[in-house]
Write a structure and sequence with these properties.
The protein is α+β, with helices and mostly antiparallel strands. The protein has a single domain, classed as Gcn5-related N-acetyltransferase (GNAT) (Aminopeptidase, 3-Layer(aba) Sandwich). Helix content is 33%, strand content 32%. The chain has 5 helices and 7 strands; from the N terminus they run βααβββαβαββα. It has a 7-stranded mixed beta sheet, sandwiched between helices. Strand 4, helix 3 and strand 5 form a beta-alpha-beta unit. Helix 1 packs across helix 2. The termini are far apart. The structure holds coenzyme A.
Length: 158
């Protein structure tokens, strides 16, 4: 596969990212990641909207919001044809490095209970299950919460 470029989203990306979220993440739910909401995150100094581009076209993206004590991974999606080529891992690793650089050593996220592929992905990246959240996505869909302590690797490399 050609080289993937990981970089913050550009002005004008939000519409495509919202469409990807509807298709890949929020299918069957009332979509809440609208173009305007993604654009607000893009301009928010406490958030990063990160894209993966292949030959200039967005093939994956992630949104992370940084707090004082923890960062929250709000959204992550990779186009189906590019899945299982390391794009999701590269996006998450970029965001984790940025969190470490900002002195934030905990990442939290939720995954749809009906999404075993994403659950295996986060487990493969070292995220630990932290229990279920009933009705997180509205009636009938629970979330599985995950968390990763980034200081574990940071201590090993010191
Ligand atoms: C979850 C998702 C982001 C993973 O992205 P990806 O680029 O395909 O993942 P990677 O190629 O970086 O995978 C890294 C590792 O995670 C694990 N993994 C990834 N997808 C997996 C799956 N469907 N089943 C089991 N393990 C999986 C594997 O161990 C993989 O390494 P390997 O391919 O060498 O075996 C992608 O499948 C996706 O966009 N899914 C739809 C949207 C979604 O579920 N988003 C997450 C919830 S917000």
């Amino acid at each position: 596969m050609a080289a993937i470029q990981i970089a913050p989203a550009r002005r004008g990306d939000a519409a495509r990212l919202a469409a990807m979220s509807r298709r890949l993440v929020e299918a069957g739910l009332d979509p809440c990641w609208t173009e305007s909401r993604i654009e607000r995150h893009r301009q928010d100094p406490d958030s990063v909207v990160l894209t993966a581009r292949l030959s200039g076209t967005v093939c994956g993206f992630a949104i992370m919001q940084y707090g004082d004590e923890a960062a929250h991974l709000n959204l992550l999606a990779v186009e189906k044809v590019q899945q299982r080529h390391g794009v999701g891992r590269a996006l998450v690793q970029w965001l984790e490095e940025t969190a470490r650089g900002a002195g934030v050593f905990r990442v939290r996220l939720e995954v749809r209970g009906s999404n075993p592929g994403a659950q295996r992905f986060y487990a493969a990246l070292g995220y630990e299950e932290r229990g279920w959240v009933a009705g997180y996505y509205g009636a009938g869909e629970d979330a599985l919460r995950y968390e990763r302590d980034l200081s574990v690797r940071a201590r090993r490399v010191e």
